[in-house]
Amino acid sequence: VSPCFLLFMVVVSFATFNPPNYGSYMFPPWANMLGWCLAMSSMAMVPLYAIYKLCTLPGRFCNRLAYAITPETEHHLIENGEVRQFTLQHWLVV
């Protein structure tokens, strides 16, 4: 949920962006770019860490994905081949 919400917020921010001003003074474009770079540097850590985690876990891609989205207390289930995360019923339970 968090990465999807983060992506939504970034898209909305880009879509509704108005360059800031101080009275009649308009800030230079490089200042706007610096602000966006600072904001994106913190937001980029979520997908970058997800990619890092998927690349460094052992096994096939499906097993790595299941291992990455499963709480540590349930990792033994993945090792035994019980991957509930790939069933529709798992995602429909609230």
UniProtKB/TrEMBL annotation:
GO biological process, one term: amino acid transport
The keyword Protein transport is assigned to this record: no
UniProt KW keywords: Membrane, Signal, Transmembrane, Transmembrane helix, Transport
GO cellular component: plasma membrane
Membrane-spanning segments: 33-52
Compartment list: Membrane
Signal sequence region: 1-23
Topological relation to the membrane, as annotated: Multi-pass membrane protein
Matches recorded under Pfam families: SNF
Protein name, entry field: Solute carrier family 6 (Neurotransmitter transporter, dopamine), member 3
Organism: Nothobranchius rachovii (bluefin notho)
